[in-house]
Specification:
The protein has one domain: 3-Layer(aba) Sandwich (Rossmann fold), CATH 3.40.50. It is 43% helix and 17% strand. The two termini are 29 Å apart. It is globular, with a radius of gyration of 17 Å. The chain has an eight-stranded mixed sheet, sandwiched between helices.
């Protein structure tokens, strides 16, 4: 398949990529789902390694990257249905799932409402409820007033430790550049989905094996949030790795090893 492809839906287009090495051409599928304000390139370090073992599918959430922006606001169900539409279009009956932050919250919705479409689920730097209505309303207002570029300094502090920002400034800058370019309406539409989402009672219905992974210095979704998920799904385990919110980049080698070990166990 080509590097870049698009799924045309009634109100928007989803940009996606498929990657696998020849030896993995009949291997299980692995779907990656991004955090708020990032595009599919946040998984580059994982794709290089995991494409040796899986058929890897990445996509840009609506309003992010090269995907287009339908009229906001959005709901968590809208985001989950985008994922299912992509699986349907590619005729993927079942896949492993890995999502971070809002991607992990989308994964929880999928586990509750479409668990039969997935095998193992990896939920990273997320929570069954992220933030409050008030905090997300304030974020939406700030983006409307000043745009996303004005939030890059605070975002860098939330996403990466000072050590990573200093020693891997090029990686951090690339991710933050993508953040600043996200469509403001698409970003705020997803903030509205986060404001309304509360799955704390519903995740007990998730029967898929779940690995919840936290960043040990993540102040957005601290380890206690991931421990809650692991303890409230039917079969869950919690692991913490060094880093803040985007620890799949900060601890890429350790993350890849833990992910591969869980998916192949």
């Amino acid at each position: 398949m080509p590097d870049d492809a698009f799924l045309v839906l009634p109100t928007h287009k989803l940009h996606y990529r498929v990657a696998c090495e020849a030896a993995a051409s009949s291997a299980p599928w692995l779907l990656f789902c991004n955090s708020l304000g990032t595009d599919l390139h946040m998984w580059d370090a994982q794709t290089t390694e995991l494409a040796r073992h899986f058929r890897v599918l990445r996509y840009d959430r609506r309003g992010h990257g090269q995907s287009t922006t339908p009229p906001p606001p959005y709901s968590l169900a809208d985001l989950g249905r985008d994922t299912l539409a992509l699986l349907d279009a590619l005729e993927i009956e079942r896949a492993h799932f890995c999502g971070l932050s809002i991607g992990g919250l989308t994964g929880q919705w999928l586990g509750i409402h479409a668990g039969s479409r997935f095998d193992r689920m990896v939920l990273c730097a997320t929570a069954a409820k992220i933030g409050t209505v008030e905090s997300w309303s304030a974020r939406i207002a700030a983006v409307r007033a000043n745009g996303l570029a004005a939030l890059t300094t605070a975002t860098a502090e939330r996403w990466f430790t000072p050590t990573f920002n200093a020693e891997h400034a090029d990686v951090a800058a690339s991710i933050l550049d993508s953040f600043a370019k996200v469509d403001a309406e698409g970003y705020n539409g997803c903030c509205a989905a986060l404001a309304a989402a509360d799955l704390r009672e519903q995740i007990q219905a998730i029967s898929n094996p779940v690995l919840a992974i936290s960043g040990d210095d993540d102040q957005v979704c601290p380890p206690s949030d991931l421990n809650f998920i692991a303890n409230n799904v039917r079969t869950g385990r919690h692991v913490s790795l060094p880093g803040r919110h985007i620890f799949n980049l900060e601890s890429a080698a350790a993350f890849n090893a833990v992910l591969l070990g869980f998916l192949r166990s």
